[in-house]
Here is the input.
Amino acid sequence: LIQLLASGLAHELRNHLTGAKLALQTCESDSTDHEAIAIATKQMDLAEQQVRRLLTVQTGNTDEKDAASPCTTLLQTVVD
Here is the structure.
C-alpha cells in the first residue's frame, strides 16, 4: 500500500513540477529578475530530486548519487 501511495504521489508531484518549470523557463527570457527565476528553477530541481527519492520507496532501488545529495544541496543552498 505504501508503495502504491508513493508511486501515485510521485506521479502527481512530477506533473505539477514539470508544468511549473516549463512556465519558469518561458518567463526567463522576458523577465528582468533572472536571479529570482534561477532560484525558483533550482527549487524545482530540488523538488524533482525528492520525487525521485520517493520513487525509491516503490522500486526499492537506491542511487548512490541521490543518497549523498541532501548534504551537498543543503551546503550549496546555504552558500547561495
